[in-house]
What does this fold into?
Amino acid sequence: MDLSMTEQKNICFTAFPDSNVFEVGDQVFNIRVKASTSKFAVSGPTAEAGFLYGYVFFRQKKDSTIRRGYFQKSLVLLSQHPFVGLFPRLISILGPSYFELGQPMLEAACMNIAQWVAPEEGKILDLPFLGRLLQVELPTAFKPQLLETTPFDMNKLKPDLQIMASLPVNGLYHHFKDILKDLWLLWELMLLAEPIVVMAQDPSVCSEAVVSLVDIINPIPYCGDYRPYFTIQDSDFKSFVNKNKPLSSLHGPLAKKTKPGVGGKSNMLYSFVQGVTTKRKSTIARDRDLIKMLTEATVRGYPPDWVLNNILRRHFVDLTEKFLVPLNRYFTTLIPVKIPANGDVPRLKPFQTDQFMKSLKEHGPQLPLKSTFKTRTSTTDPTKELYSQFLKCGNFATWLQQRTLKAEQEIMKRRSKQ
It folds into this structure.
């Protein structure tokens, strides 16, 4: 792989936890690193071009023969695909075998992977790997993976063998079940591409929490440069950690005792103190019935986490879809109605903020607003303000680009059928 020395160092440092928060044991986590000079990275999906994803198995155990007193080593699987459900599972299988038996296990794993068919959106693959047969559903772009749409039998699901490739092993519910009430605020922060710092007690929790937040606004594609796990050794550290206003991004440093000053207006999520620190006042109402149901299920210990995670994710998918209703309604008015069989292909009308706001006022939103906004007399319309902020952020530009491309493809398809 044609990685520069800087890129190689970034991968090595990021795959090695820089905070000794546990004495012995294994950690499985994922990283996202810039690899702009690598043809392998650039050949990935357009939205992910220039990045590589690393899936890490890190082992630490006491060893008096080593100067530091510990054996510490990481095995990293690199890919151009953000398959945070599939590849962590692979590395969790390979890691222990590799450290026990050495190079032959690595060669066997590579031979297995080399025989796999090429990935294809939405396809179900049977992937043999080190004596196991994994059934894997690959994601479709801008379409959330949910149990309701998967071909797997929900009542007989085997999460270790039947995998939705875009979902982390534990996920949103597992990492946020103690602070469920904060998720609606986090949804707004992610929706508006606000910079967020996630701090956690270990890289596994940190990386899964970050990718779960990136997924929370699905099917809106997140525009930011997020880092599931981030260390001070990363060459981009100084560009993130400074006195300037931070870029729209979400990343997760590990160091528990350090509070990096990522600009002056960052939102900080300290998972080890169970809370979110931010100056933003949320607009969207929490679903109290959902919170109650999930809380009771947590205490009861049933149904299993993967079912509760699906329920929670589906709620935010529905919330994001409700948010998109006015945008999709207005966007359809930009698509030409008549498609001539000959001559120039008609172009979409430009998106005009004032016209969208007029449409929003006329038809209204479908969002569940907090009761304080419904009762108080204020000159500020919270719904209008939320959409206004969204139209100014990178997530809107990414969504509009994706929506435009899809509409143009549909126009060409209609024209070819005439």
Observations:
- The mean pLDDT is 86.
- Residues 85-167 form one domain.
- The CA atoms of residues 143 and 396 lie 17 Å apart.
- The chain has 14 helices and eleven strands.
